[in-house]
Amino acid sequence: MHQVIEGQLTLDHMACHVPHRFDVPENTGTLRLDFSFSPRHPGVGNIAHQLSISVYGPDGARGTRHNNADQSPVISRSWASPGYLPGEIEAGEWVVEIDAHRILPPGNVTYRIEIACAAEDCEEPAVDSIPNPLRAPKRKGAGWYTGDLHGHTFHSDGKFSPADYLETAHQRGYDFVALTDHNTVSAVPHVRRLAGNGITVIDGVELTTFHGHALVLGLEGWIDWRVKDGTTMSEIARAVLDRGGLYVIAHPKSEGHPFCTGCRWAFSDMLPGPARHVEVWNRSWTERNHNEDAVQMFYHWLNAGYRMVATSGTDTHRSAPADHRLAANRVLADDNTPEAILNALRRGNSYVTSGPDLMLRAVAVDGSTAEMGDVVAPGPVRLTCGCQGGKAGADLTNLSLRLIRQGKEVQRWHVRLEQGLQTTVNAVAEPGNWFALELRDRTEGLHGLSNPVLVGEEGEPWH
Length: 463
Ligand SMILES: [Zn+2]
Ligand SMILES: [Zn+2]
Prior knowledge:
Bound molecules: zinc ion
CATH superfamily of the largest domain: Metal-dependent hydrolases
CATH architecture of the largest domain: Alpha-Beta Barrel
Number of domains: 3
Strand content: 35-45%
CATH class of the largest domain: Alpha Beta
Shape: elongated
């Protein structure tokens, strides 16, 4: 059975989902779709139209391959193209949706979708080999763990296979890694299988909407990312949090349309709305100065009483040049399991760093202790501030550790990381105050940022 859908998109379709229904007969084993459009490019500038398809069966979403040149998926009972989910090909009405991320003037894009249904199943091609079968088993038990919360494979617009992705995480020395392909979770089982007991894999997806990106971590399965028909991003975020997932606003100050359409956070109901996690360090610090704006937004939300947690993400799509200053999340967790890592991130017992260790701890007069992310009682507090170590090869001269209170620097120490630094500061803290540490170089470039110690009582004034 062969079906053809044709149509035209105008500028008015930008940031819209354009659905088309099609029929799948009984006893179908394989579905082949082929989406093409013309022109690919508006004819001026170096930025093309950006259109992908998503496929939905009667029983739910079957995948997408966002921002990938290949828009000709095969979906069968036992195998599917990258980005798509294999499984029963249910008879009935299916939907193929064009996700019109970017249509540039003058618009007028014609498209064609061919759909072929065949009875036979599709053979599974050879699977990825395990990148390093001799990898040691991962560390376990309570302690500090380092890892990444953001990255992509060729199941969306990355260059990496699941095996390449894991190998890169391994080379970077990560204890845990999340995989967050755009609007699809099809690669997660592959990554988990390849990881074995060598590295903790956290379920993830990047909700890649037309008006901002968010990471959902720790939930199995696909999340409907479409903000439409009266659904708001806040509702999606609340549903994720209610199900026990972590919701992270990704690269909020990234450049937007047309360079990176949809990348800049533009949900006015979510500043921060129900979100309590924000990615302040996306990709390389040197490459992308929008990260500084994200740090300042994080501070602004803390000053407004939101109990925010800062995270980082390498947003890996391919090999990164050696001079890129990426950050990892260092997390104080009860164990090296997805649940324990996510619990620590939920509390904010973590910091972002290009390599050096940071230490921030507050002790109140009654002897109670607060780690970064925790709440300490108002009154006199003794803050222990420290840092040490760093990435080999990086220029770590002329670094300074800075104590931040309410977003403002209140003290600064020059640091020689090989020797390390540990010092104490006495302060009288009032409810609503917060303290954090920054590690910066002489050009103000960031090398580490702690999550804050918050002053107040649990729930007050922090929300
Ligand atoms: Zn993104
Ligand atoms: Zn991303």
